Amino acid sequence: MKIGIVDTTFSRVNMGSIALDELDKIGGCTAVRTTVPGIKDLPVECKKLLDDGCDIVMALGMVGGAPIDTQCGHEASLGIQQAKLMTNKHIIEVFIHENEAWNEKEFIEICDNRIRKHVHNAIALVNDPKSLVVNAGKGIRQGKDNEGEASADDKQITIGLVIADFNPEITKEMEKSAIVRAKTQNAILGMTLHVPGAYDAPLAAKKLLIDKKHDAVVVLGAIIKGDTKHDDVIAQSAADALTNLSLEFNKPVTLGIIGPGATEEHAEKRKKEYAERAVDAAIILVNRLRR
Predict the structure, then answer these.
(1) pTM
(2) Is CATH 1.20.1250.20 what the domain over 2-135 is classified as, yes or no?
(3) How much of the chain is in helix, strand and coil states, percent to nearest 5?
(4) Which helix (DSSP H) or strand (DSSP E) does residue 112 occupy?
């Protein structure tokens, strides 16, 4: 088997070396590696390798986080599809998106995992394509943990928590109340993320929503009225962003944020009620959406 490896100088990880290392571990293949400047240069190089006798090619590219990078990645993908149809051979497209990861360590791990898994896919597609049939519908994923098979059975609801630490004398108690409430409602507590304040909650909520194990996200915080309209701005911005996330991911994101316009006395009285109500709303909505 002759396999082509094409990577780019734009990538911030030496993707070609990872692929060659995995091929070396497996053995039995001849590898031809070339490198091009950017992701849109991949299609023609892949076609050249296929025309020169490669049985399959792996196109390894990194997509940056800016909108123009996403556009370039899409254009490269279209070119790769054309090259596949013109040669009647497979090209394994191994693209890593920079905004898939939350830090550089995770980014490197995704690269390594995805490339190595796709090396095995490339070999299977050429040598024994029927071997892939046994994994059909298994939710196997390259780059991260496998998703697993879908199930029609109702499962326990898993809730993620986002806690705004501003006004901690209030929010710490809200967190405790939410945890107790979730357990009494037979819900599973997933990940809990603490953020500086309510304004910072949407990004943390998005991280939890991306994780498919979370059926809903509960956001807890306290915005105490000050001398200006600053608390109104924070509350409105957070509420709008969280609403948009709920619609984007088709999952409940419940607003357990006290304020705006609340005094410390108001917050003290409402902390338990707001936390419990947000948990209840998440569970009720998940159940109703399931039906």
Answers:
(1) 0.83
(2) no
(3) 55, 20, 25
(4) helix 104-127
Active site residue 230: yes
Superfamily of domain 158-290: Lumazine/riboflavin synthase (3.40.50.960)
- The residue among 258 and 145 whose pLDDT is bigger is 258
Backbone angles phi, psi at 137, to 5 degrees: 75, 15
The token pair at 175 is 């967190």
Domains 2-135 and 158-290 share a fold: yes
Please name the residue that has the structure tokens 């890593």.
96
pLDDT in tens, 126-137: 999 999 999 999
Encode pLDDT of 274-283 as tens digits. Answer: 999 999 999 9
Instruction: Please report, as a single letter, which amino acid is at residue 239.
Output: A
Q: Which of 118, 120, 230, 266 is catalytic?
A: 230
Q: Where do the structural domains in the chain lie, given as residue ranges?
A: 2-135, 158-290
